[in-house]
Amino acid sequence: MLKKKMQKALxxxxxxxxxxxxxxxxxxxxxxxxxxxxFATWMRGQVQEELLHAMKFYDFxxxxxxxxxxxxxxxxxxxxxxPLTAFKHILRHEQMVTGLINDLVDLAxxxxxxxxxxxxxxxxxxxxxxxxxxxxxxDKLELIQExxxxxFLLDADLGKRAFTLPAASGE
Length: 171
Ligand code: FEO
Hints:
Blueprint: H1 4-33, H2 37-63, H3 83-110, H4 114-144, H5 148-158
Helix pairs in contact: 1-2, 1-3, 2-5, 3-4
Bound molecules: MU-OXO-diiron.
């Protein structure tokens, strides 16, 4: 059975993950509006990942006999100065999410909630991957700067992203 404090923190994380999905969906729409379809496709994969994160927390709270309570999702920004600004925003956002996950691990340890601590390990690893993949795109965009051919090549590359559900063993 989940302790109330842990339950509240996990519910807040469901909201944070849903907000991430909302933010990236807003970015997908932005990239569609500036005709960068590959960037938009990459964003759709990101949206699906965030929804998956939210549902992992949702299922875990229920599995532990807790109660999920959904709150208002904040309005995301709707436009950015360009791809580099958008991806720097994603990187800052993911670093913030990493901080939230670390806080949850700290709380689980403090509450001696071993099941939650172990559950959170997947997210600790996931955040390392998220920051690395976004950081790599930021680096490429920094190199490209105003080079339109470089931007179109990156767009084509990002458009190859296909979202696949992680294997059950990755739970
Ligand atoms: Fe759910 Fe991108 O962290």
